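Methods — Computational structure assignment.
A single polypeptide chain was analysed. Its primary sequence is given first, followed by the predicted tertiary structure written as structure tokens.
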Amino acid sequence: MVRSTRGAARKRASEKKDGRLKYIPFGGLGEIGKNMYALEYDGSILVVDCGLMFPNDEMLGIDFVIPDITYLEERRDKIVGIVVTHGHEDHIGGLPFILPKLNVPLYGTKLTLGMVNNKLTEWEPNYVPDYREVSAGDAVAMGPFTVRFMAVCHSIPDSVGIAVETPLGTVVHTGDFKLDPTPIDGRVTDYAAFAREGEKGVLLLLSDSTNVERSGFTPSEHVLAATLDRIFRQYRSRRVVIATFASNIHRVQQVVDAAARFNRKVAFMGRSMVKNVDLALELGYLHADPKMLLDIEDVNTVSPGSLVVMTTGSQGEPFSGLVLMSRGEHRMITLGEKDVVAVFATPVPGNERMVSSTIDRLFACGCEVVYEKDRDVHVSGHASRDELRLMFNMVRPKYFVPVHGEYRHLVRHAQLAEDMGVAGKNVFVMVNGDVLVFDGKGAAVKEHVQAGGIMVDGLALGELHGSVLKERRELSEEGVVVAALTLSPKGELMGRPVFESRGFVHFEDAAKLRDELTLAVEKTIDEMGEKALSEPERLESKLKARMRDILRRYGRNRPILLPLVTVLPGGGAKTTSARGRKR
């Protein structure tokens, strides 16, 4: 426990008159994922979490989205550190791209830092991070802040909530949590720690809103033990394939324990699953007899009734183990009538279609499929309404901001806060980039900073503007028509133009259309003469206009038109092209 002297207390009291505390969310509000926020006091900045968000259906070709940290990059010398609450992708997934830019100390528990290190080793192998390992119960001074770490139960081990003591008061962030009385690892949410903060007085509470629409209490992870026993007992002679989140070490432990009871060996599949299991075994968060663990290369050496395969793919990820098996494309496992597949997860919002398609393909393989709509195979890691009420009773904050949820979740949680006695004027439903300012006299959202998303496309990291995604959407919906033509040094057309189409029509089957386009191009070149060389933008515009008029008569689609013009000067060829602008 960090204690202040009487002199320090007087100094802090004087600071309360002049200092300003800011809460700035960069992600996680009005969305599931991309969790990141900062607390700023008189120029010193503490950052909490740094996650990613998976793309929606409109983000064509995008792998994931990370927070826009322009505000933090401009003030990197003021950042005292980044604190991560647990090891889920939506809280640490952005670190490989953001931590090297900020280059500040990173605080987290042992397992969380281990998972971060796996990511950094893969994405930024030459970067040397400054890890600061902490444990629940620790208190760490970071500039004007003192951060106290509190154990919380979640669907991944070693999760923590935090209490950040500032000169203006204490900010409590629950992290992702639930009040599970019987967690797999015996590490319960620390009620006493949250209650102590409430006794001392809490200025602001930031609380997980994911399950605010669910009444009662979230069931314990232990309820799945009976489901596992039932599956193993019912399908004694079949091979069991279980798909779950790669980070849910508690669920992996339950499968390992159930497999031991039924004398089955366990094989792990999927890069993230294997890496997380190896890390958890190494650090002591997962316990298994080495004799019962089987390499995936050896799965066909044991009888189906003696094997459990744990794999990724519970969200229908295109290249995951489960999806490859459902398509018959996995190099080691071919599913059939002797298999039963259990999907131990519910679809993350936005993934419903991919999950449904995967389950359909699994049935088509002939295997039995056990999934959420059919059996009790998943429990959430987030608190439901009655647990959120208990958190309010323990912490008793003056101000409240709901976090981690879609906008309706934030509104529902704000309403719950008022029901629990928080004054309506002290409850703020915010959006990413809003700045909530405390100045000793009160609190208000007074500013807004840049806080969009940076889209990661393959190995390329950069902000893809809306126009780029708009072009991708148009290409997918309307198609593209390319016109390739060659001009002489005098601007004369050398031969017939060549047309290619993707996603519109096949010109092999549209001779009349091709002839009409050819005449339109020839007419345009004849009209412009030598100006076709000196005014390429005008040439491009005229070609597009003529082609568009013709194509409109052949269908409702409006394909992207891309003229490619090659000019043959005296010494060789030069190619110019349209810049990909639509029509």
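Note: The domain at 20-217+381-444 is CATH 3.60.15.10 (Metallo-beta-lactamase; Chain A).
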